Amino acid sequence: MAETADRDANQGLRDRLAEVYGQYARLRSDLDDLQQRLAAVRVSCESDDGLVRATVGPRGQLVDLSLDQRIFRDADGDRLARTIVATVQEAAAQTAGRIEELMVGYLPADSGTLRYLRDNDFSALLGRYDRG
């Protein structure tokens, strides 16, 4: 009788281990896919006047910049610089939103990483909880 109970308990443990391992394997596979999707993120934005197009990668880094030839008709370099900066910043903000959407299923909602992506607050990312 005790031997049967031991076998049943062992089978239960084996079944639970198989279930946990299956969950781990699925999570590992999902994380591999997530890593590829994160690395592939590219967001392009166009300026309001349609003369500047900026594309940024997953870290918000500028990976492409296109200037319409019409932009050179106006010799206001400061305005051009402001337009480029604003367009790149918009693309970077949209990229952070896309990264947050991808990460939300893998991190707790109150995690520092998600708060950083949402609010661009480095203290959330670095875990500064000693403020008060």
Descriptive account of the structure:
It is a single chain. The protein is mainly alpha-helical and 132 residues long. The protein has two domains: 1-40; 41-132, 2-Layer Sandwich (Ybab, Chain: A). Helices cover 59% and strands 11% of the residues. The protein has four helices and three strands; from the N terminus they run αβββααα. The protein has helices at 2-39, 77-103, 112-119, 122-126, and strands spanning 43-46, 52-56, 62-67. A three-stranded antiparallel beta sheet has the order 1-2-3, covered by helices on one side. The protein is elongated, with a radius of gyration of 24 Å. The protein starts with a helix and ends in a 6-residue tail after the last helix. InterPro entries: YbaB-like_sf, YbaB/EbfC. Keywords: Coiled coil. Residues 17-44 form a coiled coil.
Structural class: mainly alpha
Helices and strands, in order, run as HEEEHHH
The CATH first-level class of the largest domain comes to Alpha Beta
Q: Tell me the CATH topology of the largest domain.
A: Ybab, Chain: A
Oligomer: single chain
What is the β-strand count? 3
Arithmetic mean of pLDDT: 84
Physical arrangement of strands within the biggest beta sheet: 1-2-3
SSE blueprint:
Elements: H1 2-39, E1 43-46, E2 52-56, E3 62-67, H2 77-103, H3 112-119, H4 122-126
Antiparallel strand pairs: 1-2, 2-3
Short description:
With 132 residues, the chain is mainly alpha-helical.
